[in-house]
């Protein structure tokens, strides 16, 4: 499933294609939403927002479209009224005079009044989104010390979208690796300094992945590996997908474990469990 940075990048593409352009047609592939086609056609998209792994398309007539890609949803940007060759099902199309933004395969789509968006069940419970909202280290520290989260192991907590929006499997691994925190540790186990370091790492990893389209490795190593002609898979991450490869910090073999039913990669030396 795409993580927060990938959804924000998709939102950027949709925004670039349709922002502030009159819509010639809006198409919904889900029958319950058909009545909204006439309401949104001829309106204008004035903002495309993300909330974790959900995307919100806001219109100037007071309506918004909520969509969640889930496992298989995918946005395509094409010349107006052009369509990709795919077996996916078209769920939403926004057509302007020069571009069409097309959402395929997503099944979680809703149309809301914009002022109702904060009360949508997913939006209402989702934590801060670093890539669409002004989130600070102090905001994240408040989340970490909240009684709902303070005593939960970070390996599972970081995947909880009510804690922080948009973190998935690779970001979880990378955040814990660069802070030297074992996934079994809880916020309650960490010093104030370690909590600050963790909050800073969340912002850094999400922002870096967004800005580099999926790279979390530090820029210096990325440039060295690219200059040496190494493939992209060799300079994407610090630890994720690097099972049995040497840790960049201590050269110990990275281990793959399972936490919250999903794979996670740790360095047994740099991230001690004790």
Blueprint of the fold:
Layout: H1 4-18, E1 25-28, H2 36-40, E2 45-51, E3 54-59, E4 63-68, E5 74-79, E6 90-95, E7 99-104, E8 108-113, H3 121-125, H4 137-145, H5 154-157, H6 169-179, H7 192-212, H8 219-227, E9 255-259, E10 262-266
Describe the fold and architecture.
It is a single chain. The protein is α+β, with helices and mostly antiparallel strands and 274 residues long. The protein has two domains: 122 residues, N-terminal domain of MutM-like DNA repair proteins (Alpha-Beta Barrel), CATH 3.20.190; 130 residues, Helicase, Ruva Protein, domain 3 (Orthogonal Bundle). Helices cover 29% and strands 21% of the residues. It is built from eight helices and ten strands. A hairpin with a 3-residue loop joins strand 6 and strand 7. The longest helix is centred in the last third of the chain and has 21 residues. The mean pLDDT is 96. This is DNA-(apurinic or apyrimidinic site) lyase.
